[in-house]
Amino acid sequence: MKHVSYIPQGVCSVKIDFDLDDEKKLHNVVFERGCNGNLKAIGRLVEGKDAAEISHLLMGNQCGMKGTSCADQLAKAIAQAV
């Protein structure tokens, strides 16, 4: 299993951690800071899912006028890691 730590840009979260198994499935997605309940929900929703599929699904999601979001930053982290 590969562990990934990613420093997001332009969002409230300051770090995203997750694991990728040999089949490129996501596990243990954890955001540090940010909207606690929503980010825990994202972690639960993506658990065990295909990393490329989740990256494609979340890429481009925006939070307000930031031009990005924690979900978009997760997508970028996954794309970089895969």
Which helices and strands, and how do they pair?
Elements: E1 2-6, E2 15-20, E3 26-32, H1 36-46, H2 51-58, H3 70-81
Antiparallel strand pairs: 1-2, 2-3
Helix pairs in contact: 2-3
Task: Explain what this protein looks like in three dimensions.
It is a single chain. The chain is α+β, with helices and mostly antiparallel strands and 82 residues long. The protein has one domain (2-81). 38% of the residues lie in helices and 22% in strands. The protein has three helices and three strands. It has helices at 36-46, 51-58, 70-81; strands at 2-6, 15-20, 26-32. It has a three-stranded antiparallel β-sheet with strand order 1-2-3. A hairpin with a 5-residue loop joins strand 2 and strand 3. Helix 2 packs antiparallel against helix 3 (70-81). The model has no long low-confidence stretch (mean pLDDT 97).
What would you report as the Rg, rounded to the nearest angstrom? 11 Å
- The helix fraction, in percent, is 25-40%
Globally, the shape reads globular
Spatial ordering of strands, largest sheet: 1-2-3
- Counting helices, strands and paired strands, the structural category is alpha+beta
Order of helices and strands: EEEHHH
The main pleated sheet reads as: 3 strands, antiparallel
**How large a portion of the residues is in β-strands, by DSSP E?**
15-25%
Total number of distinct structural domains:
1
Measured between the Cα atoms of the first and last residue, the distance is 12 Å
How many helices? 3
Number of strands: 3
Average pLDDT over all residues: 97
Poorly predicted runs of 5 or more residues:
none
